[in-house]
Structures are given as C-alpha cells and as structure tokens.
Amino acid sequence: MKKFLKKLSPVVLVTTFLFLLINHFLLHSLVISYQKPVENVKTFLLVSQLIYYAAILVLAFIFSYFKFHWKFLIKLLLMYIAYCCVAYFIDMTLNINNNKYKLWNFSKAGIFQEQVLFTLALVGILAVLIYYLRTKVKFLANKAPQLVFNEGIDYFFLSQILLTLILTNRNMRGVVANTELFLQLNHRITPSSSYGNNHFFLVTGIILYISFLWTGISYFLVKGARDFVKNRSSYLLAISTSLFLALVFNFSIQLSMGKGVPFLERYPILPGAMSFQIIVLFLLFLTIYLIINQFWIATNLILVIGGIFTYANSIKYNMRGEPILPSDLSWIFKADSLLGYIDSSFIWYTTVALVLLFILFFVLKRFLFVGKIITSVKMRITCLVIIAFIFSSLFGLFLDKKDGKISDNIPIVSVLNNFQDITWLGNASNARYRSLAFVWINQMTTEVMERPDNYSQKRIKEIEEKYLKLSQEINQNRSEFLNEQTVIYVLSESFSDPARVEGVELTQDPIPNIHQIKEQATSGLMKSDGYGGGTANMEFQTLTGLPFYNMSQSVSVLYTEVFPKMKYVPTISNLFKSKDRIAIHLANPSNYSRNYVYDYLKFDRFISTDTKNIDVQNEGISPSDASTYRLILDNIDKGRSQFFSVMTMQNHAPWLEDNPENLEGSADDFTSDQNSKLTFYSRLLYQTDLATKDLLENLSKIDKKITVVFYGDHLPGLYPSSAFLNNPDSQYLTDYFIWSNYERPKLDYPVVNSSDFSALVLEQTNSKVSPYYALLTEVLHKASVDKAQSEFSPEAREVAEDLKLVEYDIVSGRGYLSKNFFKLVNN
C-alpha cells in the first residue's frame, strides 16, 4: 500500500498544482466583477486563462490513466448536492439583515457555480477522448499502467473538487475584496474603480494562502463525510461535524436576534463577522468532542446546549432588544427566575420532548458511532493545548487594543474590529453586524471605561480643590442635612405613561393620581439607558451618581461588570448610618448580585422573596406594588432618619391584570397580542397609581421629614419598533417625581438622567453637599442629558470632562481621589 501511495505522490502534487492554476483564473474572474481591470491586468488575466485551459488539458490527461468507477461519480454527485445546500445556507446567513434578499432565488444566490461545472465537464470529456486515443493508437497503448481509484486517491480528487467549489463561490469574492490589504489598496494606492497590478498580485497571494490552508481542510471534510456514512467514530468526523454545527448555530444565533437592515445600506453583516463566529464556534464544539471523546454523546450535548442558548437569546432579544451576554450566565443558577419568562405549556411540551429524546438517545447510543474519537490521550491533550493557545492568542489581540484598534494584518479579526467602529451603537447592533461571538470576546476583554487623555494624579487633585470650593459656596445658601430626614428611592418597574407612545389610545387615563402629583412636585421625564430592561443599571446610577453614558459601550450590567472593580462606591446611602439603610426588592436576592451589592454597601436589611414572615400578595403575575409599599411603612422608624432603596416588581413582564375592565389600550399598527399586553400593562399601571397615592397619603401623616424619589426604570418591552420610528427618543423616556411630606418648591428639570437624582434631591431638600455632589450638581445644571453635547458651552464641556475623570478614577483608575472628596461636614 505504501509503495502504491508513493507511486501516486507525484500525481497528487501535480494534480494539486493544476487545481491551483484553475482556481487562480476562476477566482480572479469573480473578483474583477467588483472593479474594472487596468490594461496590464487584462493581459495577466488573458495569460491566466490560457494557463487555465492548459491545466484542464493536463488534468484530463492524468485522469485518463485512472480506471473510473461508477461509485466515484455517485460520490461526486452527492458531494455537489451537499455543497449546494451548505452554500445556499451560508448565503442565507450572510443576508439575514438584507431585506431585499429573495429566499428562493437560487440563480442569484450563485450556488450552482456553472463555471466549475463547465470545468469539470471539460476535464471529463477530454479525459475520455484522451483515454480513447491512448487505447486505439498503437504507439501510445500500454505505455503507462492503468491506475485504479483506490479510496485514498478517490477522496483526494473529491477534496480538490470541493476546494475549487469553495474558492470560486460567489461570496468568496467578498471575502477577498474585504481583506485588510485589499481595502488599503483601494483607498491608498489606486482609485477604488480600478483593479490594478497590486490587486492582481495580492489576490494571487490570497489564493495561494487559502489554497494551502483549505487543501487539508477540504480533505478532512470529505473523509469526515465518509466516516459519517460508514457510522464510524473518528477525529475526521469530529472536525467536519464541528464545522457543520458551527455553520448551523451561527445562522440560528444570528436569526434569533431577528432580521434587520443592512449597515450603511451596504453590509448585511460587516466583513469577517460570519467567519469569525464560525471559527469560534468550531473551536468550542471541537473542544467538546475532544473532552468527551464520544461522538454520539458530544453531538447531542452540543445540539441541546446550542438549542437552549438560541431560544434563550431569542427570548431576551424580543423582550429587551439585547442578546445574551457573559454577565447573563449567572441566570443559569436561577432556574426559577428564568422559567418565569416562559409559557408554562411550552415548558410542559419541552419537558416531554426532552424525556423522549433522552430515551431515544440511550437506545441509539448502542448502535451509532460507537467507540472513541481519538484513542491516544497524548493526541487529545495536544489538540486541546493547541485550541487553548488559539483562544489565548485571540483574547490577547483584544486585550492589546490601542484606541479601540487591533493590530493590522491579522486575518479576519483586524478588518472585523477596525473596518467600521460601531461600538457606540451598543451590544445589540454589534451582535447583529459583527456577530455575537465578537461581542462576547470584546466584552470579556475590554476595560469598563476608557482612560481619558488628561487623566493624572495632578489633574484629579485640581478637580478635588475646585469642587471643594464650590461645595463651600453652595453650602452657604443651604441649611439642611439630608441625613436628618428619611429618603425613599422608589424604582417603579417598567413605569412609563403609555400615552406618550405614538399611536396608543387608552379608554381612560391609567395614572391620574401620579399626573396630579407631577403637577405639584418637582417632576418630569427620565432618560433611560435601555428598552424593556436594564433595571439594575438604573438603580446603580441612581445610587452612585455615576452615569452609564461614560462607560464603555461593551458594558452591559453595571452591578456585575463594573461594581466589583470599583475603588470606592459613592452612594447616596453613605450619608446615612448603616443601621438606617434598608433595601426592598421582592425578587430573587441574588439577581444581578444584589445580595452582594447591598452587603458591600452595608445595608442593615435587604427584604426580598427569601425574607421570612412578610406578607406579600400578587397583582397580576408579580408581587404587588401595594405589598412593596406596605413593607416601607412597616419598616419606617419615626424616631430615626432612614434611607430606603426600593424596587417594585408588579409591572414586570409577563403582564396579566383583569381590573379595571373598562380600561383598554390599543394601537392600529399593533398585533392583537401586543394590544392585549398593552391593555394588561395599562391596568397594572392603574393599580400602581392607586397604591402610590395611598403610600404618599400615609407618609404625609408621619411627623418627620420624608422625601420620595419615584421613577420608572424603562419602558415595557411590549411595543413594536414601528411605534418609535417618528420619535425615537420616546422609547427611552420614563416618568419621575420628587415628593416631600413638607412644603418644598417645584423645581424645573423637565428631563434628567438617573444619575442626576442624588444631586436633584439634595437641591430639592435644600441640603448641603460634599465636593462630589457639588460636581454632580454642576452636571445637573450644565451638562446633563437634557442638553445635546453640541449645545454645551465651554464651561459645560469642562464640567462633563471633570465628571468623566472622576468616574474613571473611581471605576478603572488609580484611586487618586481622597475620601474627603466624598465627605460632607455634618452639624
């Protein structure tokens, strides 16, 4: 056998080279459809075409010495059909965000590749003619042995044909044209309309590189398909299956975020996005195969995990407009909270299906792909080490970013990261256009806040002195201390007046009492950072005064990604004694690590669903606002000043409420399901309105100063995106008011950020400020979200920059700020 393979080795090398020449011409022919070739390139292409035909002739001559078997033609046909299916699947994936893409337009998808079929047909016809001449012409007959297609050479030829199909696929021209060097040539060397000499030689180099890389891969794929058909467990099958599953789950994950629109009307996804995610998934799946080393078990595990992840990603994206992120993995250990988002009937059917699949799995385990994937332990460990090295190198590239840029000329990664900076668009858009895998790795390797250019110890000390003087000036005109009264922060889950959403019609006002309160007290709209979610982020900003808008756009959950890294946590609760701090949130205490957060902030008590001996009733699906408010009243000590951080749960999804029956909400453009949810949500708001009125009436009877900061954290995720087309800002505006049980003036702050509340409540109550709150007061007056940055005066820009420097020092910096910056001199 070895002698036979040795005899064939020159044939293998020559055949590989001939296919390379054929691919060179075919791919160049594709790429030049992007740009017009210059005269020299036309000459190069003509020479390449002549070489192409010469390669076909030589290849046909080699084929004529092999004895064809009908099984080879069957394998070739099956491989071509499988390739067309996969190629079309990839084309669909690339066009997920292309609203002009026609699903069943096979001709425009370019999957049949007529040029390759013409080439193969020509090789076959010439091989038959040459064979006929050799056998009929006497002096040519029996000059060379008749070679048989043994299995090795059989699959080698199939792999070369597969390589040609891959390299000359229509989408490959986009891969080549969007490489970093090609883009540089377009912008720096020749006009973008010309295909010059440099382009030609660059594409030739890319063809050589890809051909060398994919020759082995295509052979593995063909041999892996053979092992699948033969029910044989092998490392080749694991490799080919990992790649196939990577293609499948790349599509399902991206589709779970819905169909969008092209970026800049040109890119359904950005260059390199699909390749990047497929490579990451391929390596992850291959790792699972190597660790488990049983093909049947590993495959089923990947299918289950991938299916669950895709479905969960779809749920989160539909509810919050954001994909699953690394910080969400903590929810794996909170099954009871997760199941609350899923319809009970679906859980039942899924459980039954999983049980049946589990039984089927064990029955088939005895017959399908029995045996180990790799018998050698050393080989498995070596492969795992190589994969670990690839991942560590990839993470290293992201960690070594400079000004958000990755080093140049790294295949796929450099273009994907550097081509278009869309980080500012947030995780949802980045996941859609750059892939979810990119967002995950970027988030795990990016600093939570970029270092400001002028950050230094000297600059921080200057800021301290500046706002120490300002705090002294402010305090000359203020006579109160906030910690001499009780302050209650009420984050009302999903509270926002639905009447502000365009097209919504309500049969009656669901919140008349709160509207009346807003007319009398300091009130307005609050700018939320998220839609349909982001409660923990709003609470973080409200307590600390540190705005989300200064953080890195890769940050998703402030409590889990930022809070643990902070040098110091400046919260409004610090103005009160530890024994006077109480948190109330009728949900799982470990959600977003709140049990850790409140413990770190030295809250004396955290009342949650785990707290014993509390009376809680539901309104709809969740604990009622009335129950939450009752817990406030039960824990108020009339003889002490206290701080309450309160979050309600009543208006959290899913929504269900019967009363009042005459209150209904609807919009012409909404589906029946959306109108139903709107009606239930509006009725829940009605209950919030009654409970809030009752709370304030009870607080007004208590003989001590009390101030309530009430605000909605975000809009409910029930509205379709079309509801915000004409007024995008309305998607992120909720209601707020600051009420006191004693007479205070109504201040004029129509739009604020959640990070403004502490400065605002200090001003509302005429309370003295620390240097830190003097800074936040300046931000409230001059540089908050009610003003566009383009409208900032030079003084406002300086204030905004001061806040950014202070925030960086607290979150990611060296901690230059002294404790005196946060101290308030009490009486």
From TrEMBL:
Subcellular location: Cell membrane
InterPro entries: Alkaline_phosphatase_core_sf, OpgB/LTA_synthase_biosynth, Sulfatase_N
Main location: membrane
Keyword flag Membrane: yes
Domain (Sulfatase N-terminal): residue spans on this chain: 485-766
Gene3D superfamilies the UniProt entry points to: Alkaline Phosphatase, subunit A
Pathway(s) annotated for this protein in UniProt: Cell wall biogenesis; lipoteichoic acid biosynthesis
Mode of membrane association: Multi-pass membrane protein
Transmembrane segments: 43-65, 72-90, 110-133, 200-222, 234-257, 269-288, 295-312, 346-369, 381-399
UniProt GO molecular function: transferase activity
Record keywords: Cell membrane, Membrane, Transferase, Transmembrane, Transmembrane helix
UniProt keyword Membrane, yes or no: yes
Name this polypeptide is given: Phosphoglycerol transferase
